[in-house]
Amino acid sequence: MRVAGAAKLVVAVAVFLLTFYVISQVFEIKMDSSLGNLFATKPPRYKCGISKACPEKHFAFKMASGAANVVGPKICLEDNVLMSGVKNNVGRGINVALANGKTGEVLDTKYFDMWGGDVAPFIEFLKAIQDGTIVLMGTYDDGATKLNDEARRLIAELGSTSITNLGFRDNWVFCGGKGIKTKSPFEQHIKNNKDTNKYEGWPEVVEMEGCIPQKQD
């Protein structure tokens, strides 16, 4: 009886030790996991989702042209989406967002149909832009058919280089400003070419991001 009792005691102790070991291992794993989560650092997110932070006295922006005639363009400035399909304020043609060059505050958003519309309202809109205004433009479907020399000249005066060559269903994004003294470095343009188009009848989407210098007094 004593031998049997001793054996039971040994087994009980062994089970206790094994249970204690298992619990301690599980607890240690959980602790390691919790500490790992505690000290893990998330990658930083910058305004508009751009790849790096802008320096002081600069506005962050990111924009994309439309995709074929299905998905509209998107324009973001200082983490504020100014135009997009979700906001339901984009349309066929050239989409334009205006912002205050000193504060980054949005002033206006409009789109002008350059396939079935009239270029005259677009020209009047361009002429009315005030000095010091940030101008962001992106095409959707076709942004060129109704453009005439006057409209192209007015856009070129905002700093665009590619506007003179913008053709039927080309994809184009541009960021410039009224009163700019040089050509803008913020412009992307892809020609509509049936041999290289990503979509049938349209080239791939063009995207662009950057930091716009704040207008100084």
Count of spatially separate domains: 2
User: Unreliable runs, pLDDT <50, ≥5 residues?
Assistant: 20-36
Helix content: 25-40%
Please compute the radius of gyration using only Cα atoms. 30 Å
How do the SSEs run, as a string of H and E? HEEEEEHEHEEE
Largest sheet: 5 strands, antiparallel
Tell me how many strands there are: 9
Global structural class: alpha+beta
Strand order of the largest sheet: 5-4-6-7-8
Number of helices: 3
Beta-strand content:
25-35%
Average pLDDT figure: 86
Distance between the termini: 100 Å
Shape: globular
What does this structure look like?
It is found in: Secreted. This is FAM3 metabolism regulating signaling molecule C. Belongs to the FAM3 family. InterPro entries: FAM3, ILEI/PANDER_dom, ILEI_FAM3C. The chain is of the alpha+beta class and about 220 residues long. The chain has 2 domains: about 1-40; about 45-215, no CATH class. The chain has 3 helices and 9 strands, in the order αβββββαβαβββ. The strands form 2 sheets. A 5-stranded antiparallel beta sheet has the order 5-4-6-7-8, covered by helices on one side. A 4-stranded antiparallel beta sheet has the order 3-2-1-9, with no helix packed on it.
